[in-house]
Amino acid sequence: MKPVFHPDMDAVEPAAVFAALADPIRLGIVVALADGAEVEARCGSFNELASPSLLTYHFTKLREAGVTRARVEGTSRLISLRREEFDRRFPGLLDSVIEAARRDPNLPRIPDGQLCRA
Amino acid sequence: MKPVFHPDMDAVEPAAVFAALADPIRLGIVVALADGAEVEARCGSFNELASPSLLTYHFTKLREAGVTRARVEGTSRLISLRREEFDRRFPGLLDSVIEAARRDPNLPRIPDGQLCRA
DNA sequence: GATTAATTTCAATGATCGTTGAATTTAGGG
DNA sequence: CCCTAAATTCAACGATCATTGAAATTAATC
Questions:
Q1: How many angstroms separate the CA atoms of A26 and A92, rounded?
Q2: Do B96 and A96 lie within an 8 Å CB cutoff?
Q3: What residues in A contact B22, CB-CB < 8 Å?
Q4: For residue range A22-73, what is the model confidence (pLDDT) as tens digits?
Q5: I need a surface site. Which of A32, A52, A61, B25 has the fewest CB within 10 A?
Q6: CA distance linking residue B21 with residue B96, whole number of Å
Q7: Element (H, E) at A14
């Protein structure tokens, strides 16, 4: 498995972050990761948001914007928010983003307990 | 002068807001409006960020996303942030957005005192 | 009413975006 | 070693994006 690229948080530009958040599916992923019981989630947990191929595309966008992290484990990938690092770089931003997105009625949601790391 | 459209703040979607903020020039406009001495600014105040034609395009994006307001006065248009309304809808978001953008070293800046409404 | 300054409109461009589907990689279990 | 599950890669598509420049609008001023 080839290593996954994660940008230096200091090199992450605000405009790039907002570009990553400018999509309902990606916002849905962020909210699910923030609200889910598990800190890490398999890509497959999001299968009802989009096709696997499209999910890979969206995960890449989020990861390259510094929002998420990906960890390889066997044939799975575990996705999580880069909470602490991101908050240090952009204090308060992720919280208000999540709070804003959480109230959006027509964001794609994934049922509770469907996020798993196993 | 034909009236300018402003969306109902309740109808503004988070993803659309982030799309509006996902551009350096528009972020520069938002920061300038937030930090400038004048609450309202003429479009022409931003002439060194982009051509007039391109500025119109960017102002439209910001306005349709609920971020800014435009008021017609004579041959000019006065741009301002929709602060209170926006904050009521998305508490804390604009503040952390501006704070994040303010620290971006390669955002286009407009010199202090160059914003004017006259 | 002609002139001028501020801004918009419009058509055109190349670039990027979100999406699809089919083919490929990778790793674990029989 | 084969099979299956999980996810990526790749080429293609139409849609939207940021940008340009030339032409049109609009209103204050002479």
A1: 19
A2: yes
A3: 15-16, 18-19, 21-22
A4: 999 999 999 999 999 889 999 999 999 999 999 999 999 999 999 999 999 9
A5: A52
A6: 12
A7: helix A14-21
